[in-house]
Amino acid sequence: MSELCLWCANPLRPNLSLTFLLSGREYTPPRLCRRCQELFIPPVGSQCPQCGRFQAESVPCRDCQEWKKRSGVPLVNQAVYPYHGIMQSYLERYKFQGDYVLRWLVKQRLERCLQHKQELIIPIPITATQRKQRKFNQVEGWLTEVVWVAALVARPRAISQHQQTRAQRLQTREPFTLNEQVLDQLQGSHVCLVDDVYTTGQTLHEAQRLLLSNGVQTVRSVTLAR
């Protein structure tokens, strides 16, 4: 039986060289066909140095200028993809339709952003209701081969975040509580938050604020998309 591309479900046609065939090495099929591999190559170009927004120049975007006025505490976010096109389709299938196997399509690219050995990796949590509906936390799915710390606990929400308007998201306060079992581990630490999408920045800034007020020294973040 031939392997299928995880994204388009077309058969994968291996093109093995004679050198490989004579090497005796075990063949590991790719997860994507050549066409779909190109779809998932991150774009190269200028990004906002604060939030990672893909834009024409490498200067702070308007959103980050507003965040500087509001909080005064910068948060540097590294985004792998822009949130449109393939990423919107990907997150719809993976996150909302529950196609868990699709985690493999981006997890290595995210893992490359988490190479600072001195950092604590903290995924943004989802509520108990969301976990019951989806059966998994989409961020934790990408971190199955990464050591991470469950430092944050999501408070229950009346309306899920993807149903909120931009204004509603920006008004959200204290969406998390701290897991007191890891409080000692946080003292003086350097943290990297991981989330799926940086939209308004409210979620990550609120997580940053909570961590800094509980002994964490520095916070940065990595998101799949911006």
UniProtKB/TrEMBL annotation:
Gene3D superfamilies: 3.40.50.2020. It holds the Pfam family Pribosyltran. Residues 175-225 form the Phosphoribosyltransferase domain. InterPro entries: ComF/GntX_DNA_util-trans, PRTase-like, PRTase_dom. CDD domains: PRTases_typeI. It comes from the Bacteria. Belongs to the ComF/GntX family. This is ComF family protein.
